[in-house]
Specification:
single chain, 123 residues, mainly alpha, 5 helices, elongated
Length: 123
């Protein structure tokens, strides 16, 4: 993936995050109900989005882990703060933890893949 494409992907992921954050609770509940999932899609979506953004930042933008986690924390706090302006949405500290867990997962996937690649290069 090129550097430019990585930045474009980051912007798309950020846009999806912001749209999902501002979605009214009735819409979100309707989508979750139609999918018949055993878990809430909002938390899973945040985990996947933050993991994906961290993966792109780590692997393709070569950001160090502390920088990724700091940006993820800022984004998590911002999205929770924005929920005060959404209809029937409420900020939760647990959601910040889920977002940071997703970022950690994305960083961890890149790290594990690098370790496996290093082991495969051994004679």
């Amino acid at each position: 993936m090129t550097y430019r494409l990585a930045w474009r992907l980051q912007l798309v992921l950020l846009l999806l995050l912001l749209i999902g954050t501002q979605m009214p609770n009735d819409w979100r509940a309707g989508i979750e109900g139609s999918l018949h999932l055993p878990w809430g899609i909002s938390s899973a979506a945040h985990l996947v989005l933050f993991a994906s953004m961290a993966w792109v930042a780590s692997k393709h933008l070569a950001w160090p882990a502390p920088r990724i986690l700091l940006v993820a924390l800022a984004l998590a706090l911002m999205t929770e703060g924005l929920q005060f302006f959404a209809i029937d949405r409420h900020a939760r500290l647990l959601d910040v933890g889920i977002d940071l867990a997703g970022a950690g997962l994305g960083i961890g996937v890149v790290w594990v893949a690098a370790q496996w690649a290093r082991l495969g290069d051994r004679p």
